[in-house]
């Protein structure tokens, strides 16, 4: 066993003396120091993200990019194609959630919602008949209003991907969109969903369409009947993406809910990631269980990180967890842990096979590993304040940020999407990242999500979202959640910085 | 009652305490998904890039830690029939030859069987045309009898110029055409393709093959059809195949210029460049200019020395955290001597098994491979790229391109101030090493001779094989039932039926791993 004792914690990951040779010896504390530029440009370290940035006249240069998912300056417009009730909105929402989570600003634009704004009261499928000129006109207006918003979002609001969620079943409509994209310098990627199985369509209607505002004053049978007629309105004019006619377009065609895919002309990194994601998701009912390890020795001491073992209460949680899983009667449950002692000890109590993932290890606190918050405030007050200012982007010296963690956890999410019932035994920061993905939380909310010890979160996909049940297993434990204090200024008093530190030994 | 946990000293992983000696090393980075072995079956006419994809995919899978091997039926055939004379051999009505080819396929399948069952292989790539349903049916049967998953990769291409360039590049130089001029070889090969065309039954996603798992790669990656992905591995394979391309390009790998920590012989850290390191950056800028590359992308890590090096080029560049040097954990910024003094045990363990060795609170080379995998995936997508990275990272990347094993990887020579230019050719990669003639310290530490080798070092591990696959990698078919001489005299294109007499036909080819009477042949 080789964990670092507290006394030697600083002999381990020592803070790097930054910029030893960056000719100006700027320390992170000095931030962007004003220096006369020489050739080549000076580097200073961004104190928050710990990234080296070239500076001119003390101002960071802009053209250096940290590797991000969407590297081109060319935004992407994703266009769904397909008859109603083919899961287009499901795919749009899910993809948008995923892309936002991996750090690509994405928004979906659902033309149906524009239509509902326009025409407050929906009467019947008649509105969608191809010979309903009034209806056609309104629908065209809605589409163009949505495209206007797309343009606004991608050119002015910093969006990188827009998902244009509508039927787009005619080649003519798609041509209009392609022209719109060309004029604005957007790349277009089509996602078509094709499904002929009446059971799947029926199920989809019942799941999401009946609860749509269009059918609030309607009984189930009537609604289903009307919706089926609505689908009929599109069927005659539907032109599917064609291997020959559309050979120059970039697209993925999803057939029979993921049984089969046709992928054409993947142009760039982001499209390739989207294709990979769409090939991994499925809609088989299942639940994902997230929890942290049982209470650890270092938890009790109020220390972060480290690789300590479980306390007696932590071990009791392991047993309770084992009983809980039995009562759930889950078929083929997969259990995943990190490679840290405390999650493995927790999983061992379950007496089921489990898999260890290094990427599930807790956030690396770098030089602050195994310290108490009080000690961090004492040794690195500036670091502590910076973390409170932007906890998502803040990188520990020689360690990681939540942003780093999300990148590290992406393969776990991808594999979770592939799997059915899974229990993930992980850590506070890791669990927050995973949870944020499933609950579509922003980068600001993510680092403050409540993931207490000895509590299991059961996530079950429903309609477009995810149902969460929080199950406390009634084993006492320390609280490890530190709220953001009111005062996050560097100049704050030590007392103010420590105001929200949870009680510990 | 949960048992106590002990920590593996090399990999720093926690395991249940056992009295037994530790098992083979496992894939520490990503979980080693419990999976039945997979047979990847290539489908397609000759000269559709099947062998190219087989080899490339195998190299990738081995590198990420899945033991994989190619079984090229063509090589079994060449072994069985030493002298190829002409496409007549592939004529569908050449009954004797059909039999031989069938025997070769069976022999290869036998070797697939022992590779997956007895030798720790996880994936076998069965590289042959497999253009008929009958043949594929036989393979499916073989798979279900042995509990192997079957995944088909079909390559479809009708562009005559692509096919012609493929023939020129790899076929005319193949042993079949040793004594043949290029034009004749080209002509013969095209006839050979014709022999398969009449009986070719492409995978049919709508009816006949709708329940099979496969990917159809159409027109060299312009389009893909994917049917029934079954598991993690298949999904990864598809993602990889969708990212590779065959455009000519070069990848340049180098380390940052010499850093001040290099001068002091310190590990890791985040120091800046020494004066000589700066000189190298300037030389690199000149070198890049000389190469006159179109759209060169420059990637650096997020550490100071690599960014300073990139800065000097005056080109836009991207920073990847994934390219940062191996995390030496508690040993960061120590010299080897300090490490030896402070953590003598750790120091010795690292020499024992450098690939798997994880620094306390740090990383191993194995971890590093997992970390840089997205970089490899994106390198495959890109065209000309210069990667400015670090010693251990560069070794990992290089091992991927040159198909080096886990044993060799941590000792690959990647000196400072030297650019490696990698250019894909045929099935492999050409390497040019260009020293920019700026002096630098040597940071390469060879494995000491006298070091105790880890118990696992000589064992072929289950989880990570990175096996080099030189040409001789395939199991050579062995002939048991016939004396060698008799067999090799068998004319390659059997024109006279008398030679197909019963005494010659029941040729049984068996893999060397059957170990029957084979020792003498080695």
Automatic annotation (TrEMBL), chain A:
GO molecular function: 6-phosphofructo-2-kinase activity; ATP binding; fructose-2,6-bisphosphate 2-phosphatase activity
Provenance organism: Dissostichus eleginoides (Patagonian toothfish)
Domain 6-phosphofructo-2-kinase residues, every copy: 71-285
Basic and acidic residues bias (residue ranges): 1-11, 32-42
Domain of life, source organism: Eukaryota
GO process annotations (BP): fructose 2,6-bisphosphate metabolic process; fructose metabolic process
Record: residues binding substrate: 292-299, 342
Stretches for region Disordered: 1-47
GO-annotated cellular components: cytosol
Annotated catalytic residues: 293 (tele-phosphohistidine intermediate), 362 (proton donor/acceptor)
Protein name as it appears in the record: 6-phosphofructo-2-kinase/fructose-26-bisphosphatase 4
Family: In the C-terminal section; belongs to the phosphoglycerate mutase family.
UniProt entry keywords in alphabetical sequence: ATP-binding, Hydrolase, Kinase, Multifunctional enzyme, Nucleotide-binding, Phosphoprotein, Transferase
Sections of the chain in a coiled coil: none
TrEMBL record, chain B:
PROSITE patterns in the cross-refs: PG_MUTASE
Region (Disordered) residue spans: 1-30, 443-522
Domain 6-phosphofructo-2-kinase: 31-248
GO biological process: fructose 2,6-bisphosphate metabolic process; fructose metabolic process
Pfam families: 6PF2K (PF01591), His_Phos_1 (PF00300)
Binding site for substrate: 255-262
Active site: 256, 325
Keywords per UniProt: ATP-binding, Hydrolase, Kinase, Multifunctional enzyme, Nucleotide-binding, Phosphoprotein, Transferase
Compositionally biased tracts (Polar residues): 460-472, 504-522
GO cellular component: cytosol
InterPro entries: 6Pfruct_kin (IPR003094), 6Phosfructo_kin (IPR013079), His_Pase_superF_clade-1 (IPR013078), His_PPase_superfam (IPR029033), P-loop_NTPase (IPR027417), PG/BPGM_mutase_AS (IPR001345)
Bias kind Basic and acidic residues: ranges: 1-23, 443-453
Any GO molecular function: fructose-2,6-bisphosphate 2-phosphatase activity
Superkingdom classification of source: Eukaryota
Composition bias, Low complexity: 488-503
SMART domains in the record: PGAM
Family to which this protein belongs: In the C-terminal section; belongs to the phosphoglycerate mutase family.
Name of the molecule in the record: 6-phosphofructo-2-kinase/fructose-26-bisphosphatase 3
